[in-house]
Each structure stands twice: as structure tokens, then as C-alpha cells.
Specification:
two-stranded antiparallel sheet, 4 strands, binds zinc ion, mainly alpha, single chain
């Protein structure tokens, strides 16, 4: 908040001798357009304290004019200055005008500050919204990737299941082959075959033996012919 200084204008100071205060002073943005700029001309008393400006009276009081309301005022009722919107210089201001314009300027400042806060908030919301949209896009991407990965996992799972089925089928068919010709049966058949072979060999041996025992060089026993 601006520090509005109070400049003491003693009765000895004239309007032309008003000096700019080194400190921050009230700067009036605009004055009331409907103000009567000739009002002070016909006024012989201060409009605030009613002191008479008539010369030759018991107390001689100098007549001043408030440059913001153009009313006739005494120095006691206009001890301050403010920057005038028309001249951009420090001009005499009466206490009611000072109070009024100070209040207006404070309200204007507050309003500007409020508007600043609002526009900053609007900007902040905009940037937050854009950030939110970006994040939602990212989230969508991640979700899509996740869906893709899930579908890949499902495909791989079904392929794995298929391979497992194939493996089980192979094992089952191997088991079936084993059970269709059991080893014990094969051994039995082999043994039977061997026994048959042995029998046949024995028979051949017997035949050979009987053929050898027959007298080969002697004459036929019936006809004695060799
Ligand atoms: Zn006065
Ligand atoms: Zn005034």
C-alpha cells in the first residue's frame, strides 16, 4: 500500500509555492466531470468550517480553492496536496476530497490487485489444464501399451498351452506304443523262437546222424549191388 504523506500547508503558503513531497503522494486518476469549476467564486466562507474570508473582519483568513472540487476552503481545511490528473502536478486538495479520492484510489488498487490475482489464477488454471491433458494423453499411451502387452501375454499363454497339449499327445502316443507291444511279450516271443530254432537244429542233427549211420559202401542189403 502506498504511503500517502501529509504535507503541511501553513496559512503563510500560497498555492503557487506548493512543492512536491519526496514521498509517495496521492495521485488522483480522474476527477468528477460534473464539478462546477466556478463554485469558489461566489463563496465567501470556507465550505468545510464556515470561516469567513471577508477582508477587514476580526480574523483575516485567506481564501483558497480546492483544485479537485473547486470549492472555497481555508488553509486549515486544505492542508494537503495531491497529483492532479489534468496538470500532473501537486495541487491543493480539501480534506473531504482527499478522503474521497484516497478511498477511491485504494479501492482501484485493490481492484487491480484482485484482477491481477484473478488473471494469475486463470493462467495457472490454464497451465494446470494443459498439464492435466498431457498427463491424460500419457496415461492413455501407457494404457494402450498395457493392453498390447496383455494381448501378447494371452497369445503367448495360448501358444504355451498348445505346446503343452502337443507334448501330452506325444507322451500319450509313446505310452500307447509301449503298452501295445510290451517287452515281456516280445521276450516271450523271442524265447519261443529260440526254442523253435533249437528244436529245428536238433531235428537236422538227428537227420544227419541217421544218414551217416547208414552203410554207404556196402551193397544194397536186398540186392547186394553196390
Ligand atoms: Zn475551513
Ligand atoms: Zn475539495
Amino acid at each position: 500500500m502506498a504511503d500517502f504523506s501529509v504535507q503541511d500547508l501553513s496559512s503563510s503558503q500560497t498555492q503557487s509555492s506548493l512543492q512536491a513531497s519526496p514521498q509517495v503522494v496521492l495521485k488522483v486518476s480522474s476527477i468528477d466531470k460534473s464539478v462546477n469549476k466556478k463554485a469558489y467564486k461566489t463563496q465567501n466562507n470556507c465550505v468545510i468550517c464556515n470561516v469567513n474570508f471577508a477582508k477587514g473582519g476580526p480574523v483575516s483568513v485567506q481564501k483558497h480553492t480546492c483544485r479537485f472540487c473547486y470549492q472555497a476552503v481555508c488553509s486549515s481545511c486544505s492542508p494537503l496536496t495531491a497529483i492532479h490528473p489534468s496538470t500532473n502536478n501537486l495541487e491543493r486538495i480539501c480534506i473531504p476530497c482527499y478522503t474521497r479520492y484516497l478511498k477511491e484510489e485504494i479501492e482501484r488498487e485493490n481492484e487491480a490487485e484482485k484482477q491481477g490475482v484473478i488473471s494469475r489464477e486463470v493462467e495457472l488454471r490454464k497451465s494446470l489444464n494443459s498439464e492435466k491433458m498431457k498427463l491424460e494423453e500419457e496415461l492413455d499411451k501407457v494404457r494402450n501399451e498395457q493392453m498390447g502387452l496383455k494381448s501378447q501375454v494371452l497369445t503367448l499363454s495360448s501358444e504355451l498351452e498348445c505346446l503343452n497339449h502337443q507334448k501330452i499327445n506325444v507322451q500319450t502316443s509313446e505310452n500307447k506304443n509301449d503298452s501295445s507291444v510290451p517287452i515281456s511279450d516280445l521276450l516271450e516271443k523271442l524265447r519261443e523262437q529260440e526254442m523253435e530254432n533249437a528244436r529245428l537244429q536238433k531235428e537236422v542233427q538227428t537227420l544227419k546222424t541217421s544218414s551217416n549211420s547208414r552203410p554207404s559202401s556196402s551193397a544194397c542189403e536186398h540186392c547186394s549191388v553196390q
